[in-house]
Design brief:
By secondary structure, the protein is an alpha/beta fold. The protein has two domains: about 120 residues, no CATH class; about 110 residues, no CATH class. The protein is built from eight helices and eight strands. A hairpin with a 3-residue loop joins strand 7 and strand 8. Helix 2 packs across helix 3, helix 3 runs antiparallel to helix 4 and helix 3 crosses helix 5.
Length: about 250
């Protein structure tokens, strides 16, 4: 039995799904490399992320299934403590390409029920977090908050706080995942942020500047451009929130 592995990004997962179709293979599981638990029953095949291939799958989900299905699978993808989430998404989409827009009406099918239950769980946490995030004012008039959610919800709550605190610079730090959402009164983005980078009242401005600088250095500078990192930290779906210059 085959198990596809990928780099852990949403684009990587969509690439793996693309390859399963065009290779005419039916992997028993799809797993991100970082969480891999080797099983002697599987033959492991690593799939390199390919943006063009992932975009084709992305468009196919929207056009042949529905926007709602795309939203469903993205929410499940963000449930990163759900060990088999990639396989759950794969099985759901295979069914969706057969049933089309009516997929979520098939509630008796376990492939659909799993996705809807996980999405509901993620949405509940998003709703709860929007009401419970607490900001502290740091040096340089930067607002800072720490969260440790069960799911990787930064991409889902950042737009809410960008609207609510649109005239403030802020950081929301997912301490558990070493990620941070940054907002500069114009755009928001998500960057790597070590769990040790917890600012105090005097270092908030320095942290804020360092994180933006780190993002520029690792992603946006032409000589060191890392598209895979960019897509992992900010999936394609959320690119419209950014402009060409920050």
């Amino acid at each position: 039995m085959i198990c596809y592995t990928y780099d852990g990004s949403f684009d990587g997962l969509l690439t793996a799904i693309y390859e399963s179709y065009y290779r005419k293979e039916k992997p028993g599981e799809i797993q991100p490399e970082e969480n891999l638990q080797p099983n002697m029953l599987f033959r492991y095949v690593h799939i390199e992320t390919d943006f063009e291939k992932s975009q084709r799958v992305y468009n196919s989900i929207r056009e042949k299934i529905s926007e709602e299905a795309l939203d469903n699978v993205y929410h499940v993808f963000l449930a990163d403590r759900e060990y088999k989430r990639s396989t759950i998404i794969y099985n759901y989409l295979k069914l969706g390409w057969k049933t089309g827009k009516s997929i979520d009406l098939h509630l008796a099918d376990d492939r659909v029920l799993k996705v809807l239950k996980i999405k509901q769980r993620v949405e509940l946490e998003v709703h709860r977090m929007m009401g419970f995030v607490r900001f502290s004012l740091m040096a340089g008039n930067i607002y800072y908050a720490v969260i440790e959610p069960d799911n990787n919800i930064l991409p889902l709550i950042a737009p809410h706080f960008a609207e609510r605190l649109r005239d403030q610079n802020w950081i929301i730090h997912d301490k558990a995942r070493g990620l941070a959402a940054l907002y500069n009164t114009r755009n928001w983005l998500i960057v790597d942020a070590s769990p040790s980078k917890i600012p105090d009242i005097d270092t908030g401005e320095k942290l804020y500047r360092d994180l933006w600088k780190e993002f520029y250095n690792s992603v946006t500078i032409k000589e060191r451009y890392n598209l895979s990192l960019h897509k992992r930290l900010l999936p394609v779906r959320y690119w419209p929130n950014l402009t060409e210059k920050w």
